[in-house]
């Protein structure tokens, strides 16, 4: 049976993602509307430990739905890995009477949240804020669609210059453990090949496919590589390609941190708004230790440990479509 | 039992939508890959009647995945409404041995396709190419996500100036029979109220809500109206608001045709690529008279007449969330 | 001989323009760096009258260089038109010891500034913040380049749909007294004709030129009209074109307020930064009643009354180039 | 005394730049309008040698003004460095009666053009097509403004994530011999320091300035480095900073080839249109061996060898303004 929640706090943690601000806005305004007091915690668990916590009202989140980054900032916090650290952090919540916590972030952030729940009984709700879409239990993570579009717009620009010079570009996008940004941006930009952690990279296949393109005088090609691909990043792939296929004019582009920033897309703002609303509803309904996700357009609650541990599989059909459409 | 398809044609019809070119690319390349001959038809049913039909190969669709508009152009065709007109149009397909047709468009386009199927036995597959998302049987239509993002970016700009001047803006977006662009762009831009054809507009509620905002000195507000809202467009709403709440500095902005153009978003390119691929697969599998849609991430085939006739309902939850988040 | 300035204030007034925030940042940081106290005034002359004035430091302008709108807001102020009103406003400056004022805005804003100088001896510097580029004495106004690019991107989208449907679009852009946005965006989007206040519109020429295009089957055409064109806006032009040339599929698009918002372009931020810096330098150097402008890449000071009264002429060469390039 | 020109050719060469297509359009349409025959040459001097030359009319350049890249493609051509190579290339022009050439590119491209003029008496006009703005004799080069805006938008995104994590980002932009992209994008994004080839980099100053920021707890900082800075690129700078100031969370981002692509800005399209027009006028007027530039809004003709050899100096004032505004 759930104790009634009356004061909740919110923090953002881990790598920032576009839409975090829209999520904060949704949590704060839903909380206020439903009669709760809402606190913001600066810099994730660091601010919790350092007591950098402040009350938030509807106006404090005005005009932020469209902003990249996070007004609550984010940080890694080593001290929070220790039990003493967490006790100190929790004490700062307790003294304010905070009896519910919403954590926006990825797997590291959720691990911290679970410890707060398990060690102190604090109800915690996780919201999937990660551009990589590397959490189980949701079709969307906050920031993923924006990161994909940023990558697509960058690769479109690269295609302009690739096309002007008949070049082969090997483009590295983010994704340490998940290849979704690579997959989606690669399909959307007509990539010749897409290399992702979820599928073993056969470099001989890559070479063979490029060789065939070379014979057909199709010299403009884009290969998209996820940074976490087991074979190695774009530079590794380029090294092999340059050795084996010296006739290609091969260039590397590593998109890097631009993928984290920018104004969120429409979908990321919708997902953020909906998840933020349901995080508060979930706390009020007595839920804890779960991540709010959206599957088949329905809100689904997945235990945090499952969200971290399990992994979505990449739809094999897509890899077939990639091959056909790049022909 | 299905006759084997060997030559297919593709056309775009009705209002153009971003992603049509990505769809054409997918249909052509999938067709060629699977051993079919593929023809392009210019200007929809007009080009079919005027015999403006030409063979397409993989290279003819190179470097178009990112382009707005449609390289096959689109047009209305009055003559096609007559049986003679359609007979003439079909004859142009027949003389080339074209035994399958992919139609990218909305309800009018699908009506034409059904007639070709019914009158001449031509296998036809419809792909939902409409920014309004006004077809039944799919979570996504080609162009919808781009139109929403275009609207969002425009309204973000309007919010800059609204905020600078403490103004109320009434913004009209496209959507004659469906309020999805209004709903999505309104949520994503933090609109105070969203007026759509699917829900009766109670102008007294609008006035009351604004009055309450006025009392709280919240003068910067955005109302998003779908052009097809039964109450009337942005100008109608503005007229009432100006009379009843003269203290608001009320401005109108009608976004208009910019919502049709532009480079498609990542999702629209994915949807276009996937649907284009499955349209060809469907023809080969002997399907006809159906629209390819995506529901809960699965490919679903809906009879064209159902896709036109039935209507998705708007999720009531969203309207509640809008109210809370704009507070 | 100049009295040493020690406390300056800044306000934004009139229609907002992208780059105003970058200008505020430059004025504040330059002032602080050079040892002055800097005050911000909210909502232009309204805030001056209502004593809505607050001290600004370097941190108060952090992370705003890229934002549209103006953090100081803008407003019209009727009471400021009276001598009593201005006396009250000036008293609020005087009691703080403010001995210099930077006004970012257009002609109305400069008129107010001149009165403060003339009536109370307050040193005032004007900075040209107007998207219309309707001030004399500068090659650039703050916001103009952004507005042009916003118009260009919108018209590019319109061209996508114009091209798909073989349509004639008549697009209205901002510019009540100056046709620069129309001229620049029209050239940049390959407009067939550009109608501006500075040149008499001969509708017969427009009709003749379109007729000739019709004969050559060039059906996709864009006409760009400044809102202040003497002939009338886009709707007026469309009415005539539809009557006289019914074969064109003529559509109207009025871009409206989106042209005021958005993140400023690189040039607008450079211009804003440079002008903001020189405004403070000018006050320190004892200048007053002048607008800071940039002509041929040099800083030029023009008396405010001249900046308002005189008018740049449009380079006739451009109109010839438009005609040739649209052929 | 000038011989009348009747057939001209156009090519793009060297690194591609946004606006090259707008330039091609202007040259072709102006040429046709003035009664000349116009030829396009594919892949720069390579296509000239390989006889890949084709007639261009007004329609061949329709709907390209907004496209990045170059429809004529670009390439390096080693064989053209030999006299035999050039003789062969010139023969391909001569046999068509081509008596004028417009070359869009940078210093390498102009060197080739001068040889054609000197060795064969072919009238040549150079147009400055380079994102780096590394040519003397013009305030604008085609593509520069777009590249600056692309860099600015990328750095804005990086600032979002820098701000969320209190990070120092060292961003490398293009510019091997000229620091203009670094200077302009750095000012426009509020960079703390800008390192360019034109000014000696004193790494001790950089460290001292960052140290001072660290003391003031200003941890979010952007340093923009031109790739051609004598000290080394972003990675070199980061190495030193990480050693000397380990408390900063220092990240590197190399923007790379995205700076070459994308739809040109309004200014780049204006510059391209104007220069393209004047290139043809110049050929008709009997000019040769000169680059068309724009200085103080006037068309200026600079001998190609001067345009290559001389160098603009960076305005020292800007470096002072950078320092003040980043404070």
UniProtKB/TrEMBL annotation, chains A, B, C, D:
Keywords: Allosteric enzyme, ATP-binding, Cytoplasm, Glycolysis, Kinase, Magnesium, Metal-binding, Nucleotide-binding, Transferase. Residues 7-283 form the Phosphofructokinase domain. GO terms for molecular function: 6-phosphofructokinase activity; AMP binding; ATP binding; fructose-6-phosphate binding; identical protein binding; metal ion binding; monosaccharide binding; structural constituent of ribosome. Its EC number is 2.7.1.11. The active site is at residue 132. ATP binds at residues 15, 76-77, 106-109. It comes from the Bacteria. PANTHER family: ATP-DEPENDENT 6-PHOSPHOFRUCTOKINASE, PHOSPHOFRUCTOKINASE. Homotetramer. This is ATP-dependent 6-phosphofructokinase.
């Amino acid at each position: 049976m759930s104790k009634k929640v009356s004061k909740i706090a919110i923090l953002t943690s881990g790598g920032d993602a576009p839409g975090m601000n829209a999520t904060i806005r949704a949590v704060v305004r839903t909380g206020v509307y439903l009669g709760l007091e809402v606190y913001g915690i600066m810099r994730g668990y660091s601010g919790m430990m350092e007591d950098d916590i402040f009350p938030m009202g509807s106006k404090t989140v005005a005009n932020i739905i469209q902003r990249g980054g996070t007004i609550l900032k984010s940080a890694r916090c080593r001290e929070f890995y220790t039990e003493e650290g967490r006790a100190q952090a929790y004490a700062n919540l307790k003294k304010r009477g905070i009896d519910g916590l919403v954590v926006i972030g990825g797997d590291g952030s959720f691990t911290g949240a679970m410890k707060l729940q398990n060690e102190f009984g604090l109800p915690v709700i996780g919201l999937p804020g990660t551009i990589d879409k590397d959490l189980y239990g949701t079709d969307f993570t906050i920031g993923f669609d924006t990161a994909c579009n940023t990558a697509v717009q960058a690769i479109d620009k690269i295609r302009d210059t690739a096309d002007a010079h008949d070049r082969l570009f090997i483009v590295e996008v983010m994704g340490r453990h998940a290849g979704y940004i690579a997959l989606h941006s690669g399909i959307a930009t007509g990539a010749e090949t897409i290399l992702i952690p979820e599928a073993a990279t056969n470099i001989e296949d890559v070479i063979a496919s490029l060789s065939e393109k070379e014979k057909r005088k199709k010299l403009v090609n884009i290969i998209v590589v996820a940074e976490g691909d087991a074979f190695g990043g774009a530079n590794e792939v380029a090294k092999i390609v340059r050795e084996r296929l010296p006739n290609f004019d091969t260039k590397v582009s590593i998109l890097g941190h631009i993928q984290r920033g920018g104004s969120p897309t429409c979908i990321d703002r919708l997902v953020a708004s909906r998840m933020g609303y349901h995080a508060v509803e979930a706390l009020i309904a007595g839920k804890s230790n779960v991540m709010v996700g959206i599957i088949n357009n329905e809100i689904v609650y997945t235990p945090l440990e499952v969200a971290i541990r399990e992994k979505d599989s990449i739809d094999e059909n897509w890899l077939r479509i990639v091959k056909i459409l790049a022909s």
